[in-house]
Structure formats: structure tokens, C-alpha cells
Amino acid sequence: MLFPGKILPARFDAAGVQQSWRCDRRSAFTLLEVMFAAAVMTLAITTSITAMQRAFVALDSARNITIAGQILQNEMEKMRLKDWATVDAYPAGPTALTIDTNFTSNAVIGNRFALSRTVTTVRSGMKELRYTVTWTSLDRRTLTHTYFTYYGQYGMYDYYYNAA
After folding, report:
1. Which among 38, 21, 20 has a CA at the least distance from the CA of 29?
2. 13: phi then psi, degrees, rounded to nearest 5
3. 96-116 in b/e burial notation, b at 16+ Cβ within 10 A?
4. 115 pLDDT higher than 90
5. Cβ atoms within 10 Å, residue 132
6. Residue 45 near residue 28 (C-beta atoms within 8 A)
7. Does the model's pTM come out above 0.90?
8. What average pLDDT does this structure show over 100-129?
């Protein structure tokens, strides 16, 4: 391999016959083959890094949707404990709310999320309450998650919510 075409010391086959050993030029890789292998390896590494980045963004979105759902569920539970006079006094339109300290005290969550409530009068004695959580994802997109419910004056102060 080091000396193409040169005869090296003799070697013997299984029958004990002496054979000459020549180096073959085809036993090494050509420059073109090495360049092609390097290009394929570069493509594979680049593709895997891109796939990992997208997976991290998807994981972050899933976690944030779960946290947003927990914040919204917490607000629904707090609202369910209110009486009609309190709910009827909620101002119409969107109102910014403070997120419970159980969520904001967590360093990971911190102030990434914003909560708002929109109240609409459906008819006399019935309100639609819409809670929305907004946050910015790792890829700088603004995302929202919304729950809404109807609250009746003579209802059982229970709720039915649906994700919008």
C-alpha cells in the first residue's frame, strides 16, 4: 500500500506455495470518494441537528400548553366559587388578570404567561366568561390557549368549559 507496484517480501498460501505480494492501487480511497463521504456525513449531521431543534420546540410547546391549561383550570375553579353578584360585577370586555403565585413563583414559568378575562352578557342572568393565556414560544411565536364557560344567575355555580 505504501509502495504501489513494488514487490514485497514473499508470503505463502494455505498449500505452502510461495506467492509474491504486490500492492494494489485500488485498495485505497480516492480523493473523490473521501469528498463524497464527507458530504454525506455533513448532510446527515445537519439534518439530525435540525430535527433535534424542531423536537425541542415541539416539547416546549407541549409543556407550555399544559401549563396554560393548568392556569386556566385554576381560574375556572376560583371563578366557580364566586356568587352571582361578584360575577355580574365583572367588567365587560377584556381585563388583564394576575396569575396565581403558585405558578409565577416557579422560575421556569416566571412572567412568560399573561392571563386575561373577557366577559360577555349572553342574556339577562347569563354571562359568558372567556379566559385566555398568552405566551411566546421558543421560536418567537405568540401562542394562546382559551377556555370559556357560561355562568347563570340561578345556576348551580358549576361550569362546563371547552377549549377554544
Report:
1. 38
2. -85, -175
3. ebebeeebeeeeebeebbbbb
4. yes
5. 19
6. no
7. no
8. 88
Has residue 99 got a pLDDT over 60? yes
CB 145: neighbour CB atoms within 10 A? 20
Strand, coil or helix: 82: coil
State residue 113 phi and psi, 5-degree precision: -110, 145
Half-sphere exposure of 86 (CA within 13 A, CB side): 7
Contact 151, 85 (CB under 8 A): no
Distance set, CA 100 to CA 97, 103, 104, 141 (Å): 9, 6, 7, 24
pLDDT value at residue 3: 52
Q: Are 129 and 119 in contact (CB under 8 A)?
A: yes
Given a cut of 90, whether residue 157 has pLDDT beyond it is: no
Q: What is the mean pLDDT of the chain?
A: 83
Q: Nine-digit cell at 116?
A: 386575561
Scan for cell 418567537, then name that residue.
140
Question: How does residue 14 score in pLDDT terms, banded at 50, 70 and 90?
Answer: low
